[in-house]
Write a structure and sequence with these properties.
Number of strands: 8
Strand content: 35-45%
Distance between the termini: 41 Å
Shape: globular
Number of helices: 5
Structural class: alpha+beta
Order of helices and strands: EHEHEEEHEEEHH
Helix content: 10-25%
Length: 191
């Protein structure tokens, strides 16, 4: 049986001040909504001894509206962009998938939520994701490096403003800056 070949995911994040202002800017620049705003619940799984994290790997379950995905991400490649191998697949039964992962000795270690809207521009190779999170709002640019640079520039950002950290790392930095005890990155009122 042939093994799946992971694709290399290339992306950066940019902190934004206002989702409404960013939506208007994206429309002016010719971007349209490819995937309407949806609530995402993400759960990171690992072994009790954090073997995946120590190897800089990540296993994530995502529920986004009616779509469920599982993704494995390999160690990041150092550089200007966040680049890492990724294999992702849809699945239908979240409860069964959690039981399967538990049977393999994996457990949930971090949960994070966001609202995401995906934008695309005709004949362009990348996507702009507008992410509204409990720790602030971001756009994520995913695509080839030269496209990321052009898109960031047209949005008014320089390479010095690129963020390559995961939402987990950003959440920990947020908690440290606010002197909060880290838990899960959830919207208030959710457990």
């Amino acid at each position: 049986m042939a093994r799946p070949h992971p694709r290399l995911e290339t992306e950066i994040k940019l902190r934004i001040e206002s989702p409404a202002t960013t939506r208007r800017l994206l429309a002016r620049l010719g971007y349209s909504i490819a995937t309407p705003r949806v609530f995402e619940s993400n759960t990171i799984f690992d072994t009790p001894d954090a073997r995946l994290r120590r190897a800089q790997n990540l296993l994530r379950l995502r529920q986004a509206g009616a779509r469920n995905t599982i993704a494995f991400k390999g160690p990041p490649i150092e550089g200007k962009y966040k680049v890492r191998p990724e294999v992702e697949s849809d699945f239908t039964d979240p409860t069964a998938m959690r039981e399967i992962l538990g049977g393999l000795g994996l457990r949930p270690v971090f949960r994070y939520e966001k609202y995401r809207t995906e934008y695309r521009k005709p004949r362009q190779p990348g996507s702009v994701m507008l992410d509204e999170t409990p720790i602030g709002d971001f756009v994520e640019l995913e695509g080839p490096p030269n496209w990321i640079d052009r898109a960031a520039k047209e949005l008014g950002y320089s390479a010095a403003e690129y963020i390559t950290d995961s939402y987990g790392i950003l959440y920990l930095a947020h908690c440290e800056s606010k002197r909060l005890r880290p838990g899960h990155m959830l919207f208030s009122g959710r457990k």
